[in-house]
Amino acid sequence: MATPSALVNVMIEAARKAGKGLIRDFGELNELQVSKKGLADFVSAADIKAEQVVFEALEKARPGYSFLGEERGLIEGTDKSHRWIVDPLDGTTNFLHALPHFAVSIALEREGTLVAGLVYNPVSQDLYWAERGKGAYLNNEKRLRVAGRSRMEDAVLATGIPFLGHGQHAKFLKELHQMSQRVAGVRRFGAAALDLAFVAAGRFDGYWERDLKAWDIAAGMLLVTEAGGKVSEIDNSDANPLDTGSILAANMELHPVIEARLKAAQG
Known about the structure:
By secondary structure, the protein is α+β, with helices and mostly antiparallel strands. It is 34% helix and 28% strand.
């Protein structure tokens, strides 16, 4: 049985508190005030409330840390060496369509290195968390390990489909063509944080997506690496996915194979 550190417990408390509010709003979708943030990209009152809850909880526990959130952007703290990276509601479109697949994602950077992360699904109450060098876990019971499959024909991959007004549709279709004819299946669930958590848990064998934000993937990146997997930028292995928004995550055996297929798609 794993015991989270005091730092992770702070994050867990913030995520669960935000999750309670999301569940309340999820049960009252008809009453939710929804405004457009962009073409087919919606922000709800639930997003904003959840981020406020997380921000207040983290600020109280660790005053002065910087905060990067989807709704409020970057807030520079007095402590320049630490930065929270938060998505209060990853999978907003799922949420607004009453699809029970969304999550709270919280990560912490220290001197530019991810040191702790969690992804929390309020519907299932599954809590995926990791600390750098200490492994990744589901709730407090199960140590997470990436899947052991090494053949593409046995693999199920996850991805994200560019939606209206976002992303490069033609490039995605080429990549999907390269992948779908070589694997057991490709899934698109609509929440990047949970896709990465599922890679860490061995449910998905790999995941790739472009045009993401740091808050979509920060916690999930640490989950995958602490579960024994590999995370990289799709096009430039020296780049940081947090900076580019382009990410490939898989176990050590499949990562280079998937990477080669994605590069072939652009040939």
